[in-house]
UniProtKB/TrEMBL annotation:
Organism: Trichonephila clavipes (Golden silk orbweaver)
Single GO molecular function: DNA binding
Official protein name in the record: PC4 domain-containing protein
Domain Transcriptional coactivator p15 (PC4) C-terminal residues, every copy: 53-103
InterPro entries (alphabetical): PC4_C, ssDNA-bd_transcriptional_reg
Top-level taxon: Eukaryota
Biological processes annotated in GO: regulation of DNA-templated transcription
Pfam family, one: PC4
């Protein structure tokens, strides 16, 4: 038996890509009147809480994308209606890079471009910060830090936690009294313990890295600088650095495993971090670390 396949004269149609989800970076030459009417528009007199003006048309903003939290320093342009639009003159920084800027006298932000022949070249500067810009950057530092800490939990950690909760087996009989905050309090305490453990481990690592004696492999404990630093001083010096170097995916796995037998972790799956007071989370982490709260009951993280 022979089979004969007829060639179809029907052509496959190319479905256009949905570009609505793409982030568009405008420059001064873009016709901003083509911006969709339902987009979020803002002016110099009214801009979002995650944006901070540091002079002229330069803004610092804390944005999130693909489970990452970034600090943007960018020049904006205004259209005929006074609406602000981001230009290509800017840069996206990891929080640990951004936090180093407030102690610098002058900042010229450039990009390192890799050529096709694998050589590298700096492109022209994207943003130049000096004088008033740096003064405003320093003045806004604590507000930006607060926003970064908030996004690291409510977005970055939350995205990883949701993915881990979805892997948990379904519970046949899920009953939770929504009028009782008990479950959320337990999740709050559990998060503080996990976060304190990770912060503590990172601080210990950075303290030893900065100890000249530890790096030289000396074993005389009395002369180790790292052993004479109080918990209070360690936290003040290394907390931000420790926070920015947390492996959030691993922390999410440990947090979910610690609460996998608590049915309300599924109930609060999407909004547990939004319901928590994030500032209270970090205050408790600080208190637990400085007062050497025992974390021995936690599994090895």
């Amino acid at each position: 038996m022979s089979l004969c396949y007829e060639e179809s004269d029907r052509k496959r149609k190319c479905v256009p890509l949905n570009n609505s989800a793409k982030k568009v970076c405008f420059n001064e030459k873009v016709d901003t009147r083509s911006t969709p009417s339902n987009s979020k528009e803002f002016t110099m007199a009214n801009f979002p809480a995650h944006m901070f003006h540091i002079g002229e048309l330069i803004f610092i903003s804390v944005n999130t994308f693909q489970k990452q939290t970034r600090v943007h320093i960018r020049v904006y342009a205004t259209d005929d209606r006074g609406i602000l639009h981001p230009t290509k003159n800017g840069v996206s920084l990891k929080p640990e890079v951004w936090c180093a800027l407030h102690n610098i006298v002058s900042v010229s932000i450039q990009r390192l471009f890799q050529r096709k022949d694998s050589s590298f070249q700096f492109v022209r500067e994207r943003v130049l910060l000096n004088g008033e810009n740096l003064d405003q950057l320093r003045d806004s530092y604590e507000r930006v830090l607060k926003c970064v800490k908030n996004k690291l939990l409510t977005y970055t950690l939350s995205e990883y936690v949701v993915a881990e909760v979805d892997r948990l087996p379904e519970i046949d009989s899920l009953y939770y009294d929504v009028d009782s905050p008990h479950g959320l309090h337990e999740l709050f305490d559990s998060l503080c313990k996990c976060l304190t453990k990770y912060v503590s481990n990172n601080i210990s690592l950075f303290v030893k890295l900065d100890c000249a004696v530890c790096q030289d492999d000396f074993i005389l404990p009395k002369i180790h600088e790292c052993m004479n630093v109080s918990k209070r001083d360690c936290f003040d010096m290394y907390f931000e650095r420790a926070l920015y170097n947390i492996d959030w995916k691993t922390l999410a796995v440990d947090f979910v495993n610690l609460n996998k037998n608590r049915p309300y972790i599924k109930f609060f799956r999407n909004d547990m971090f939004d319901l928590m007071e994030i500032e209270n989370v970090f205050k408790k982490v600080e208190d637990m670390y400085v007062n050497e709260y025992t974390l021995d009951l936690l599994p090895s993280l």
